[in-house]
Specification:
Blueprint: E1 13-14, H1 29-41, E2 46-48, H2 57-66, E3 75-80, E4 82-83, E5 89-90, H3 94-108, E6 115-118, H4 127-139, E7 146-149, H5 153-159, E8 167-171, H6 179-182, H7 184-189, E9 193-197, H8 222-241, H9 246-256, H10 270-277, H11 286-295
Parallel strand pairs: 1-2, 2-3, 3-6, 6-7, 7-8, 8-9
Antiparallel strand pairs: 4-5
Bound molecules: NADP nicotinamide-adenine-dinucleotide phosphate.
Keywords: Oxidoreductase
Organism: Companilactobacillus nodensis DSM 19682 = JCM 14932 = NBRC 107160
GO molecular function, one term: oxidoreductase activity
Length: 299
């Protein structure tokens, strides 16, 4: 039987817009530094990064900032799979993962990584072999928890053959709920922690968009987009009772969900982090939690 589920803070900071120049336009390093600092100053104690965010730049910025803070109070999660020496081809081989952890430790300027994820599955490596390599690093104290990301259920099962997977990160939000059926029953059974990425659906669930912005979210049909907008109007009403914004109310919903270990909204600007940190103070009643759940049923 699996061990107890990993205990981590309920709110973190997603840092793909911290130094992630290869993924997003118009990012400034100075904003990245400010975002990470502001998160830590606002009581956010988990930072989710990856080699792929700026090909190491996000990790470097975080490494610089944490020098001024108590390392023991910060949970750092990072990821690797894209091979910098082979055109970013996916690689889960034991040698690659071990080298990736050493490289990330240098960029983060720390001597351990709290959570290390295999960012994406490759096609060649048996998943239990990849995880066994991470277990060696865990025994050596270089990493503290073993994670996988973007794995199918079958790949997670293969990775967890020996019960060594601690945590899974996958695409999940109120408007992208497949994981409830595909992954969560197995993760719950195995006591594996779950971290959704894109919790704000890349900003859509902050309430800052309107019907005329549909062209930015083409994955939704006209009808779906309209029902998301209508649902967000109702979330706004619930939020008002808590003096909370739409984004804070949505984040509070994930925080209240026992199946979610931590929620890691990304931020481009300091003011977004400050606002998102406010979600930790929003306590939804069971009726409000259920209402928000039902508003987005069917996605
Ligand atoms: N494992 C993986 O493969 C994987 C994949 C994707 C992401 N992730 C992780 O998950 C994290 C979250 O995903 P994400 O950041 O892409 O998407 P997200 O959390 O759904 O959306 C974040 C974006 O919404 C906007 N935003 C955030 N707070 C706001 C606020 N209070 N008011 C207005 N706008 C706000 C910002 O973008 P704008 O200002 O540009 O609108 C921000 O970058 C990432 O940072 C990363 O750490 C992991």
């Amino acid at each position: 039987m699996a061990t107890k589920k990993l205990q981590i803070p309920s709110l973190g900071l997603g840092t793909n817009k911290v130094g992630g120049h290869n993924l997003f336009d118009n990012l400034k390093d100075e904003d990245g530094y400010a975002v990470v600092r502001k998160a830590l100053d606002s009581g956010i104690e988990l930072l989710d990064t990856a080699y792929m965010y700026g090909k190491g730049r996000s990790e470097e910025i975080i490494g610089d900032v944490i020098q001024d803070y108590d390392r023991s109070k910060i949970i750092i999660a990072t990821k690797a799979a894209q091979d910098p020496n082979n055109n970013l081809e996916l690689n889960n081989s034991p040698e690659f993962l071990k080298q990736s952890v050493d490289d990330a430790l240098k960029r983060l300027k720390t001597d351990y990584i709290d959570i290390f994820y295999i960012h994406f599955p490759d096609e060649a490596t048996p998943k239990y072999e990849a995880v066994a390599a991470l277990n060696e690093l865990k025994q050596a104290g270089k990493i503290r928890a073993i994670g996988v990301s973007n794995f199918s259920l079958d790949q997670i099962k293969e990775a967890n053959r020996d019960g060594l997977v601690d945590i899974v990160e996958d695409n999940y939000s109120l408007v992208h709920r497949d994981a409830e059926k595909t992954l969560l029953p197995y993760l719950k059974e195995q006591n594996i922690a779950f971290v959704p990425y894109f919790p704000l659906a890349s900003g859509l669930l902050t309430g800052k968009y309107s019907l005329s912005d549909h062209d930015k979210f083409k994955q939704f049909s006209d009808g779906e987009f309209k029902s998301i907008m209508d649902a967000l109007d109702e979330v706004k009403v619930i939020g008002k009772k808590h003096d909370a914004t739409v984004a804070q109310t949505i984040l509070a919903w994930y925080i209240a969900d026992p199946d979610i270990s931590t929620v890691i909204p990304g931020a481009r600007l300091e003011k977004q982090v400050v606002s998102n940190a406010g979600s930790m103070k929003v306590q939804l009643s069971q009726a409000e939690f259920d209402k928000i759940n039902s508003l987005f049923e069917g996605f």
